[in-house]
Amino acid sequence: MQKNDFHNAWLALDVGTTGVKAFVFDENERVLSRAYKPLGKSFPKEGWVEQEPREICEATLTAAKQAVATAIPASKMGEKAILAIGIANQRETTILWDKKTGDPIYPAIVWEDARTKEACGARSAAHGSLVHEKTGLPVDSYFSASKIQWILDHVSDARARAERGELCFGTVDSWLLWNLAEGHPHVTDYTNASRTLLFNINTKEWDDELLSLFEVPRVMLPEVKPSASNFGNLSPKLFGTGIPIRAIAGDQQASLFAAGVEVGTTKITFGTGIFIMQIIKDRFQPRPPSTFLTTLVAGKSGRSLFALEAKIESCAARVTPLIGHESEMKELLDKFAARVARFVGELPIRPKELIIDGGVTQAPHLRIALKRVTLLPIREHAIFDGTALGVARILKDCSPRSG
Question: Residue 240, by phi and psi: left (phi above 0), alpha (psi -120 to 50) or beta?
Answer without folding.
Answer: left
